[in-house]
Amino acid sequence: MEARIQRVASPGDTDAPESNAWIVGDDDEVIVVDPGRDADAVLSAIGDRDILAVICTHGHAAHVARAPAVVGE
Questions:
Q1: pTM (two decimals)
Q2: Among 1, 18, 57, 58, whose Cα sits 20 to 30 Å from the Cα of 35?
């Protein structure tokens, strides 16, 4: 399968602006970059594909807040 990159927006709030999660993969497997605050949106976009890794580029909550929830799946 051919790899692709998908953007998933996490909504902002009064403490931080909207952020983007990135899903890199194919029809079978993905790597999630900066899962943000909305694990449900990220997991919905992943569907039944296997998560190989979750990468956080830095420690701001807008990028890492829901990483444990995504890893848990």
A1: 0.83
A2: 1
